[in-house]
Design a protein that fits this description.
By secondary structure, this protein is an alpha+beta fold. It is 54% helix and 20% strand.
Length: 188
């Protein structure tokens, strides 16, 4: 029996280039893996030093927390309560005095539409040590107040306006009245 072999159906492949490229790529991957292992080993060797420094900082923090607790205990005693209240009051007063009324009114004047009037304004220091302006404004229409709110929201020195309530016009007060609070970041 005679079998014919057609060499054209199984051509000779050029596998040498593929094997060479695969070998080079494999060597590069092995080199990258060895480099990563070396970096990990070096950082692992430094870890005890970092652990000692972190432990030292934690000890310092513990000592400071103990001192803070001791001082807070002294301040919270009944005989020192008056001094603490006066201290907090004076700190808040000094913080409020740092607010320039001229600058505050100038900033509000730039934002206020012609039909909006400022009836009352009271600065307060909130829990985050930010100045909050508690305001009551009067307008002839609700649209003017909405325009004022848009101006507050778009201004850089005012943020987070919160409406607390509104009142319709009466015989004694012909304006719509709105009470709102806004955080004020005065630029000094």
């Amino acid at each position: 029996m005679r079998t014919e072999l057609n060499l054209a159906s199984h051509p000779f492949g050029r596998n040498r280039l593929f094997y060479l490229a695969s070998a080079v790529l494999g060597a590069a991957l092995v080199a990258a893996a060895l480099f990563m292992v070396a970096v990990f080993a070096r950082s692992y060797r430094r870890s005890p030093e970092l652990d000692r420094r972190i432990e030292g900082y934690r000890r310092q923090l513990g000592v400071l927390a103990q001192k803070q607790a001791l001082l807070d205990g002294v301040l919270r005693k009944p005989e020192n309560a008056i001094v603490l209240e006066q201290s907090l009051f004076l700190n808040e007063l000094l913080y409020r005095k740092g607010i320039s009324w001229t600058r505050t009114f100038s900033d509000l004047e730039k934002l206020m539409p012609p039909r909006v009037r400022l009836i009352t304004i009271r600065p307060q220091v909130n829990a985050d040590n930010e100045v909050a302006l508690d305001m009551q404004v009067g307008t002839e229409s609700r649209e003017a107040f909405v325009e004022f709110l848009r101006g507050l929201e778009g201004a850089a020195q005012f943020r987070s306006p919160v409406l607390h309530g509104d009142a319709p016009p009466t015989e004694n007060q012909p304006l719509f009245r709105f009470r709102l609070t806004v955080i004020y970041d005065q630029k000094l």
